[in-house]
């Protein structure tokens, strides 16, 4: 059987989330799967882990009290999800998948995510989106607007992906020289008027993008000497969002634009991480948690506002079977005394816990964080 599902390659636009939200199947069941594809380092082991997770979910759906037709639809969803998930394991930029499938209605969206997720599945009469929304809330959206005197291109950048929203050209009369100075003056004015009209058009399209697909940050780029004029045409909502101005050719290839946008994002993330760290230091006794044990305690109390973690850090650990508290060492839980179960990466678990309490999670590669065993948190109160 060949699967109809495909991995969504564009950005996850707010309008796509709205489409998923609007999807309803009264009296039916549809499938929402969240699958971590990167829990293991080598591809074969990762594939085996995904198979195991899906086998568990298959077992669960077989146990549901359902009419045969509904169960058959969920089985079909499961088959399609398994085929695509196994084929996707090992793709470098895809750490996990969020799958929304209603094969009986011929509907399916599979969203690749660059961060780790907690494995889950839901079989309801609508898609379950809160885990997706929590992940989307972790990363700001950027728009990139490039313009010269007649061309323009608009992009969305989110979760390490780029998508061209629109591109257009406004006809500007070519440069002509008139021997008559008055004619020449009129002509030059006309020419300036044309490219101001073009800038106005670009500014309008950018505002339309903001209204249709809201974004937090704007990067503008083009011929350096014309950027201030262009900026003058932008609505205040847009000017307030500008985080960078680029001297760049409008026709720069898309991968290069993405690389530059990701560098801007990295600067912003670094700045945010530094400011969280500064807050932790300034409020060390009341709101700071340094190192795994203090951070796990703060997570257990559901008090984490922001979590800092070193990238790629991994360590086996434990989670209490009863109250869910994370621990580095085994033995009875220090909060409730109950037994614990092993988790393969306690740092990933901490990230999932933090995301679920709506904390801001920032990866931060810094010596100071390394000194406190790669993790720290700022508490809410
Ligand atoms: Zn416990």
Fold and architecture overview:
This protein has helices at about 15-20, 45-65, 70-90, 130-135, 180-210, 225-235, 235-240, 255-280, 285, 290-300, 345-355, 365-370, and strands at about 30-35, 95-100, 105-115, 120-125, 140-145, 150-160, 160-170, 215-220, 240-245, 290, 305-310, 315-320, 325, 340-345, 360-365, 375-380. It is of the alpha+beta class. It has three domains: about 15-135, eRF1 domain 1 (Translation, Eukaryotic Peptide Chain Release Factor Subunit 1, Chain A, 2-Layer Sandwich); about 140-265, Nucleotidyltransferase, domain 5 (2-Layer Sandwich); about 285-380, Ribosomal protein L30/S12 (60s Ribosomal Protein L30, Chain: A, 2-Layer Sandwich). Strands 7-6-5-8-9 form a five-stranded mixed beta sheet, with helices on both faces. A four-stranded antiparallel beta sheet has the order 3-2-1-4, covered by helices on one side. The protein has a four-stranded mixed beta sheet with strand order 10-16-11-15, sandwiched between helices. Strand 2 and strand 3 form a beta hairpin. It is globular, with a radius of gyration of 25 Å. It binds zinc ion.
Based on CA atoms alone, the radius of gyration comes out at 25 Å
How much of the residues is beta strand, in percent? Answer: 15-25%
Main β sheet profile: 5 strands, mixed
With strands numbered from the N-terminus, the spatial order across the biggest sheet is 7-6-5-8-9
Give the CA-CA distance, first to last residue.
54 Å
Based on Cα principal axes, name the global outline.
globular
What are the secondary-structure elements, in order, as H or E?
Answer: HEHHEEEHEEEHEHHEHHEHEEEEHEHE
CATH topology of the largest domain: Nucleotidyltransferase, domain 5
Question: What would CATH call the homologous superfamily of the largest domain?
Answer: eRF1 domain 2
Q: Determine the fraction of residues in helical runs and give it as a percent range.
A: 40-55%
Average pLDDT confidence is: 93
Number of strands: 16
CATH class categorisation of the largest domain: Alpha Beta
- Domain unit count: 3
Which hetero compounds are present in the coordinates?
zinc ion
- Stretches where pLDDT is under 50 for at least 5 consecutive residues are none
> With helices defined by DSSP (H or I, 4 residues minimum), what is the helix count?
12
> Structural class of the helix and strand makeup?
alpha+beta
At CATH level 2, the architecture of the largest domain is: 2-Layer Sandwich
């Amino acid at each position: 059987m060949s699967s109809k599902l495909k991995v969504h390659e564009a950005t996850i636009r707010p309008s796509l989330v709205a489409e998923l939200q609007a999807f309803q199947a009264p009296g039916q069941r549809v499938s929402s799967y969240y699958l971590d594809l990167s829990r293991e380092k080598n591809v074969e082991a990762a594939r085996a882990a995904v198979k195991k997770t899906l086998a568990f979910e298959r077992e669960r759906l077989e146990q549901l009290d359902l009419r045969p037709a509904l169960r058959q639809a969920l089985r079909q969803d499961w088959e399609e999800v398994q085929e695509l998930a196994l084929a996707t394991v090992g793709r470098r930029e895809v750490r996990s998948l969020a799958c929304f499938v209603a094969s009986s209605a011929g509907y399916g969206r599979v969203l690749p995510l660059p961060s780790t997720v907690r494995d889950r599945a839901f079989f309801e009469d609508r898609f379950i989106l809160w885990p997706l929304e929590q992940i989307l809330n972790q990363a700001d959206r950027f728009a990139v607007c490039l313009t010269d005197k007649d061309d323009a291109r608009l992009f969305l950048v989110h979760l390490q992906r780029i998508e061209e929203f629109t591109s257009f050209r406004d006809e500007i009369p070519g440069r002509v020289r008139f021997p008559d100075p008055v004619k020449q003056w009129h002509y030059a004015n006309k020419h300036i008027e044309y490219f101001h009209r073009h800038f106005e058009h670009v500014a309008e399209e950018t505002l339309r993008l903001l209204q249709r697909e809201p974004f937090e940050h704007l990067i503008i780029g083009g011929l350096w000497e014309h950027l201030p004029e262009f900026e003058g045409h932008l609505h205040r909502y847009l000017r307030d969002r500008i985080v960078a101005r680029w001297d760049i050719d409008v026709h720069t290839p898309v991968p290069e634009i993405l690389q530059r946008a990701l560098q801007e994002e990295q600067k912003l993330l670094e700045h945010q991480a530094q400011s969280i760290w500064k807050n932790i230091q300034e409020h060390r006794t009341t709101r700071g948690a340094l190192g795994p044990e203090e951070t796990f305690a703060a997570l257990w109390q559901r008090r984490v506002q922001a979590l800092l973690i070193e990238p790629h850090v991994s360590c086996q650990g434990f989670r209490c079977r009863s109250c869910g508290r994370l621990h580095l060492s085994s033995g009875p839980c220090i909060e409730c005394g109950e037994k614990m179960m092993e988790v393969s990466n306690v740092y990933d678990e901490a990230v999932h816990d933090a995301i679920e309490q709506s904390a801001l999670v920032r990866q931060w590669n810094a010596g100071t964080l390394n000194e406190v065993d790669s993790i720290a948190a700022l508490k809410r109160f």
